[in-house]
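[job 4471] stage=fold_predict status=RUNNING
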Amino acid sequence: MATRIGLISDTHIPESRATLWPQVYEAFADVDMIFHAGDIHELFVLDELEKIAPVWAARGNGEDGGGGRPTQPEDERVKYAWLQEIEGLWVGLTHYVPVPERPPNFTMARWVERFFPERKPDVIVSGDTHREAIEWIDGIYCVNPGSPTYPHNYDTQYGTIGFLELDDGKADASVWLLTDEGIEPFEWGGVPPWKLRP
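[job 4471] inference complete, writing structure tokens
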């Protein structure tokens, strides 16, 4: 039986806006679980997401007081790294992995050794860069949903979220752009809205 995971990262609430865009909650209405890849900032965001589905979250630099922000308390839903077996795949969640790699120091192997010493994940969901990405690196399916509120570190506006479909040892990820009407598939070769704004 397939598992559908809603992916979100770098929400920066309440810096970006008081709450998440309502389109996020609507888009995640039918997911089985939600992964937040860090820089949540205020943990009430997880409370709201948890009304939809169980939540796992990565602890980002923002939760640790980065940029002068208040340090967030410990929370059982939040760890520096999670590794779970889902649908026959080992799926990791952490705030940052080097996508793309920048050898010799910023390599996937070094990050796997640091955050997933027990075993190499088949899939890693991460955030931090505010840039959406779906790439294979060192045999790992790496997925970054981008930021729904600060896409590519631009000012507050509609950004991106993602989905990860897991079924019988296979993984398929997608990235979606928030719009006034809801969400639409992200056009990888197109010009995103944040590059069109003056």
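[job 4471] summary: Helices lie at 22-27, 44-50, 108-115.
[job 4471] exit 0
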